[in-house]
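Quick one: structure for this chain?
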Amino acid sequence: MPTVEINGSRINYCQVDCKSGNDCEDLVMIHGLATSLAFWYFSHAAEFSKRYRVTLYDMRGHGRSGITESGYTSNNMAVDLQKLIDHLKIDRAHFIAHSFGGVVALNLACIDPDRIASLMLIDTHIFAVRRLPKTKKWKSADSIQQILDKNGLDIDVKEPYFGYRLLSTVARMQTQNIEISEELKNMVNHLMWKNNKRTASRWLKLMETTKAEEELMGDDGLSLNSLRKLKFPILALYGEFSPAMPTGEQLLEVWSHADFRRIRKAGHFFPITRPFEFMKNCQQFWDGALIKELPRREGDYNKRHFRSERFFKEDDKWYFYTRESKKIGPFDDIEKAREFLRSEFISDMIIEKPVK
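Got it. Here's what it folds into:
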């Protein structure tokens, strides 16, 4: 893969040509911490290249990009991104950004908003919400804390950056050949580490020999007031059980023009664990289906709310959720699931309740 020296760092990147010709728009995909461009490359890039020319890159200190002593503030990493797309002669692009990648994308938007054609903000937590004293507790907090306690890990999920500590703790266990329970593996196995000690060692090197930990855990420079100024199309997509969900709920109050979608029963890594649902939401957003009619609750004109896809695919079978969040299925295809739902709805309408 090609690399380029920009902003004091070697940045590794790749581009996937658009299958629809040379006049396609650009899509830039940004991964989160402790991963690399591989997070997007294997499951998503080929599908999205049917519509866009896709650009992927390894953030500073990640993947095959260089490790520098400093430069890991989200603002400086946004400058990395800005200079990369300058180098690639991308004047304007659509962006998909997961986790910390979303913080980088938002910083770029504040620095150079004209570069953003649209943004899909995927399960991103921001500092302005982390420090709020009355932030709503995320749904899986108690169950995750129980797993950490059971495995003897001195990590408190109420800490704003507990996720970073968890990554480093598990990476250290992996490099020292300490057995990792299946529960812990399930929490972090989508970081692409699996049994790769090299990747775990690289993360520890980044955290222990540079200023990355200090700079990543500092103020990301994003205020709610600055975010209110962003007017390009935004889709905020969050996992129902993710620790980042409180940020999504706070952003409901910030962007009256954006769309907010929740992936039911999903955690932080749903682009990997639920790729079909994720890509469907992307396509719907780009097609404009999610912005033609903004959803609002009666009597609350300016307030937004999260919507969820009722039908979804899991292990090659189709399911749907009722309004009571009951999972129904499996079905061989989506039409059978829809027909079943229609038949159940009609039955409820025509069956009379017995008179007491």
